[in-house]
Amino acid sequence: MSEPIGSPVAPTAQSRTVAPVQVSLWTTFRTMLRWSLASIGSLLPLIVIIQAALAAGIIIGFGFLIPDIDPASALFLSSGAPTVLLLTVGLVIAPQGVSRAKTTGAFDYQRALPVARPLLLVVDLVVWALVALPGVAVGLLVAWLRYDVALSFDWPLLTIASLLVTTMATAVGYAIAVSCQPMLAQLISQVLVFFVLLFSPITFPATQLPDWFRTLHDLLPIQASAHLMRAGVAADVFTFEVRDLLLLALWTAAGLLVTTRALVRRR
Questions:
Q1: Is the dihedral of CA 244, 250, 256, 259 positive or negative?
Q2: Contact (Cβ atoms closer than 8 angstroms) between residue 144 and residue 232
Q3: With bands split at pLDDT 50, 70 and 90, how would you rate the model's confidence at 28?
């Protein structure tokens, strides 16, 4: 006997169960990366150009402050400029971007997406590394053209140091941005610009600082970053200590811990 027209049809097992769509972690990462790059949009090439100009400006501009600069001073300045660039991107530009995202609501929207929240940090680390690393190459090229410095690259060390310094700086900058109000985070990032450029032994020797300031830098990751990058750029002249690696790893872990806890915390 046929069912009357309009009578309810008993749901089948197939209609009751909807199979969840499985998306691989790599697919999610690529999607979030494209989204992050698209959010920067046409400003991305401009940011890369500005970072490259900053690296060149540090090398040429700081050279004007040293009359009759000798080859040793030129090498010290040139090998320190990439560190300034990487720290500036991670400690200044990255937290300012996160602060703007928090102000517009984009940050909370990303946290509400059905993706692993630590992946948001990984995507930003990749984006800012792509922004910073071209400037390192440009800065070293300008140093070679301007001062004819003798660079001796330790490529494995330079690669590891660049990635580690970028990760450390971005993790710490990200931690500042997610832990503070947007206005306060931007203010802190502006202070860090002057601290890195003028009060950190990157483009000048630590011996020019007071004793208490040198002791402070023994605890901060800035000088350790410069040691690693310098040893990668001019391996025949500069070296680094295992302590530098441990200090950078400690600060990186602290930044990642604070950031991850802030990202996964429910609001």
A1: negative
A2: no
A3: confident
CA 59 – CA 203 distance, rounded (Å): 9
Phi then psi for residue 22, to 5 deg, are: -90, 120
Residue type, 134: P
Fill in the DSSP letter of residue 202. Answer: T
Which residue is listed with tokens 């002249």?
237
> Which one-letter DSSP state was computed for residue 73?
H
**Cα 112 off chain centre by:** 24
Question: Is the Cα dihedral 145, 150, 155, 156 positive or negative?
Answer: negative
pLDDT, tens only, 178-218: 888 989 998 998 899 889 988 999 988 899 999 999 999 99
CB contact burial 136-163 (16+ within 10 A = b; e otherwise): bebbbebbeebbebebeebeebbeebbe
Classify each residue of 190-209 as buried b or exposed e, where b means 16 or more C-beta atoms within 10 Å of its C-beta: eebeeebbeebbbbbeeeeb
Give me the amino acid identity at 48: V
